[in-house]
Amino acid sequence: MDMQTLPTVVLGTTGASADDVIAVARGNARVELSEQAVEALAAGRKIVDDLAARPEPVYGVSTGFGALATRHIGPELRAQLQRNIVRSHAAGMGPRVEREVVRALQFLRLKTVASGHTGVRPEVAQTMADVLNAGIVPVVHEYGSLGCSGDLAPLSHCALTLMGEGEAEGPDGTVRPAGELLAAAGIKPVELREKEGLALLNGTDGMLGMLVMALADLARLQTSADITAALTLEALLGSAKVLAPELQAVRPHPGQAASAANMLKVLEGSGLTGHHQDDAPRVQDAYSVRCAPQVAGAGRDTAAHARTVAERELAAAVDNPIVLRDGRVESNGNFHGAPVAYVLDFLAIAAADLASISERRTDRLLDKNRSHGLPAFLAADPGVDSGLMIAQYTQAALVSDLKRLAVPASADSIPSSAMQEDHVSMGWSAARKLRTAVDNLTRVIAIELYAATRALELRSGLVPAPASAAVIAAVREAGVEGPGGDRFLAPDLAAADAFVRTGALVAAAESVTGPLA
């Protein structure tokens, strides 16, 4: 995309929105500082400069950091102090973190800086925006953050790039020395002054960025799961009566009502629902079918709570010490990642359970003893053909991994900094495992989609709902083959995964139902 056509996000002093984060992280939107932000930056910096000129020590301005905060640092060493904290804290190890995560990290740190509460000079903030707009992405590593005193190592690697040191990825995707990339973009490296090094690396920006993106992905997946649950209910000749609004109203969880309403929309006009077989009469469907709205809805309500936490964080200025409008610079504990870490872990639990119930529905479609007339494993010639037997194995392996990923990271704490930082959030770790969980959940839903659409096509003589028919047509158009003899299955599963991941599943259903929740 031509740089001139990219959207622009303007940062003021009151934070940013989730849409802003997504636009910058994933859409490469440009960033500008508002006039209000520049004024707030200048006012905050004046407070720091005034305090720096005084003889008494002020944490982060004229002292060491963490357990070394007892040492007073004279004016002649303060620039070196700020450089040193960035260099020493850029201690990450392991694989590189994804480009979109680092862009979110850069943007959210700039969001806090733009508030004027950090004491960073306007020119440093402008350089942060220039680096983002130039498409320069610092090399940030998987390990190094404990989620307390902020995402220290990840943010330090970002600050190192501003200084023209370390490595970064250029707009062409090539990793080069950061100084070379800045020079090529015409950006002058920053020379940090009092408090600025600390201010650039003392925030919960990495875990928050990953939370915002996970919420966007989960919103799509929750709708996708409602669609696949409806397709499976239909393929199993289940009853849609349990989805009635009056039944949801007597247990008024909003997420449950939304999921049930989605399923009803998808199933409208179905010729399969309620056709219980004479040789296997059913009074009720199995839990994995009948309770789909309750489980998916609980996940929706979990996401709603997490979204509230994210919105509060997006409106926050997280730094220590913080510059107050009345001229004080005060130490605080707002950098602790517990609020974000808890909801990241909570979402991983919800993702695991949504995957678990999806896998149980898939298994029911494949079991001839429970599928009410469908062939074993949806195979063309069971015994000669194995059908989708091993697709369910893959799904089960993914679900098992999701259950391991649901173990909370935030319940752990390893003291650091000579026991000064004796309780940490592990929020970065919670965010990293949630990203994997969301990725795996996508694959699990894709496998249910693959099985359910095949099962519906095997119900000869019965007409699926118009929305179901639209999904089947779209998924076949996307390269996912229908019923037939055994073939190389991995390409079909990959195509189904892409169909869910890109939002094509939701779009296909909504082409008939209209907007789904």
From TrEMBL:
Crosslink feature (5-imidazolinone (Ala-Gly)) location: 148-150
Positions bearing 2,3-didehydroalanine (Ser): 149
Entry annotated with the keyword tRNA-binding: no
Pathway info: Amino-acid degradation; L-histidine degradation into L-glutamate; N-formimidoyl-L-glutamate from L-histidine: step 1/3
Protein's UniProt name: Histidine ammonia-lyase
Predominant localisation class: cytoplasm
Family: Belongs to the PAL/histidase family.
The entry's keywords: Cytoplasm, Histidine metabolism, Lyase
Gene Ontology terms for molecular function: histidine ammonia-lyase activity
